[in-house]
Amino acid sequence: MTSERKDDSRMKDTSAVLYRGGTVYSDADRFATAILIEAGTISWIGDEQGADVHERAGAAIVDLDSRLLTPAFGDAMGSTGPTAADWASHGVALVVGGSGENAFSELGLGGIEHFPRNERARAVSRLAEVNLGEVACIDPTILDPDTDLAALATQGVPFAFGTAPGEAVSPWSRVQHALARGLSARAGFLASTRGVWRASSAPDAHSRGRLLVGTPATLAIWDHTELVTQVADEHRSAWSSDARAGLPPLPALGALDDAEWRAPICVRTVVDGQIVFDLIP
């Protein structure tokens, strides 16, 4: 992607940074193209007309150049393999789990871990053992192919996605595998963002993992090929998209046997307003 407008957010003496000219994934505004960050907090989300006002007011400008801006991913398992830099380079800004008693265990369907809110994690062998109020922390990429996550979600099982030890870091791969197991891409994405915070005991967990005015600016910016609203069909072997759903779009995910599909590339990760990974020139 090319653009004449340069990213000068690190040159201006201002605490206000305006990202504009892209697609902003926020349930607050389905058609948002811009977002304003002040003092590490999201202060405005909207369209290009509103962005013009903030630019004239002196905010530093970052041209998204048609890229996608989303809440940053989390990692509900916090496996110790990837470094913090590895996670950030894949748009991951939060690691809930850790080593020791919170480590991932190879059990049952390939490994399931739970983080009851405000309690320590516990490992179980079957999803059926989830208690009311617990969140199932799983890595969909290692589950049995026949595991129907959609059926479990219908029964009220909430998910938080994470990285099993030795597995690939890319969070989009986990969303892709969740799609193949019956969840919509949106449900898989939420399990990787809001769901991870739900699995934590953070006092502001209810507002984290989302792009809303007043929330901390923790986000990722992605190069992508196509944005769609994507759901698994009843046979889970093909994908369909429907723009009429009125939901924020996400990158198109390929089938598991699609050797040509490539995950979106993270070009910037921001945690509470601070850039922790950056490929934007």
In short:
This protein has 281 residues and is of the alpha+beta class. It is 16% helix and 26% strand. Strand 7, helix 2 and strand 8 (92-95) form a beta-alpha-beta unit.
Would you give an account of this structure?
With 281 residues, the chain is an alpha+beta fold. The protein is 16% helix and 26% strand. It contains six helices and 19 strands. The protein has helices at 48-56, 84-89, 149-154, 171-180, 185-192, 194-198; strands spanning 16-20, 23-24, 34-38, 41-46, 60-63, 68-71, 73-75, 92-95, 112-114, 122-124, 136-138, 159-161, 219-223, 227-228, 230-232, 239-241, 250-251, 265-271, 274-278. A hairpin with a 7-residue loop joins strand 9 and strand 10. The chain is globular. It starts with 15 loop residues before the first strand and ends with a strand.
Extract low-pLDDT stretches.
1-14, 98-118, 234-244
Q: Which sheet architecture does the biggest sheet show?
A: 5 strands, mixed
Mean pLDDT: 79
Number of strands: 19
Strand arrangement across the biggest beta sheet: 2-6-13-18-19
Secondary structure class reads alpha+beta
Question: What is the CA-CA span between the terminal residues?
Answer: 11 Å
**Quaternary organization:** single chain
Shape: globular
Helical content (DSSP H or I, runs of 4+): 10-25%
The arrangement of helices and strands along the chain is: EEEEHEEEHEEEEHEHHHEEEEEEE
Percent strand: 25-35%
Rounded to an integer in angstroms, the radius of gyration calculated over CA atoms is: 19 Å
